[in-house]
Amino acid sequence: MPFSDSPGPIGIFDSGYGGLTILHAIRSMLPQYDYLYLGDNARAPYGSRSYDVVYEFTRQAVSKLFDMGCHLVILACNTASAKALRTIQQNDLPNWDKQRRVLGIIRPTTEVIGSLTNSRHIGVLATEGTIRSESYTLEVRKLFPDIHVTGVACPFWVPLVEYNEFESPGADYFVEKRIRQLLQKDPQIDTIILGCTHYPLLMNKIRQFTPQGIQIVPQGEYVARSLKDYLQRHDDIQRKCTEGGRIHYLTTEHPQKFKENAQIFLNEDILVEHLDLR
Ligand code: DGL
Asked: What is the CA angle 221-113-9, rounded to 5?
């Protein structure tokens, strides 16, 4: 069935709650638009899942968001951006609807990195899937061949956030371990990209264990700036995004559970509906 041609909200997709950090930054910069947030919480985390599974889950989510009226969907998830974006753009979009767009968040983050590092040695902390895909290394190399990229996967960080344990003393061990590992691999690193949308929630702990002088780069602001620029350059898409500042939340988990956990990220009362993706 063809998707509706009427304008609709901007779709924001993540495996769970992490994309809320991106939504927050986007809303701060572009409060005028309507947004439809979808968290696939029932199947999160995506971080250690195979390419095929992440692609299939992400494809289902994007198709559903198009179905619900979005013309533009942001994959507010590095794992999905690393493993599914290219295939969806190249194989699915031409069959679904050539006028719709899906954008990821890795490119906007790597674009700014050249102006942030002095030592030209950067670190990336991300999920196993994102690190294994080497997406950051490849993207940075294309834009800034002189920058040396070292990645470390942080397998327990997403569950710490999803289970609301990110401020707990237990989190210290996992955070310290990965930062130490990263800086041992490359002591010249002066900039660390948080290449997972969940990680800004661990910022207090990350700062605590990162030596002074090393900057930590969350993605939200850069993704928001890049989206603003994209909409300015693509009038055809911009005209398909409704305005009104409304936000609708969908989760594949129980809405009440999402609502409670989302407070951690949003600090506001929200309305949430359940959605089945299968
Ligand atoms: N928040 C997602 C990311 O940016 C992944 C979390 C997960 O493992 O599901 O990579």
From this structure: 30
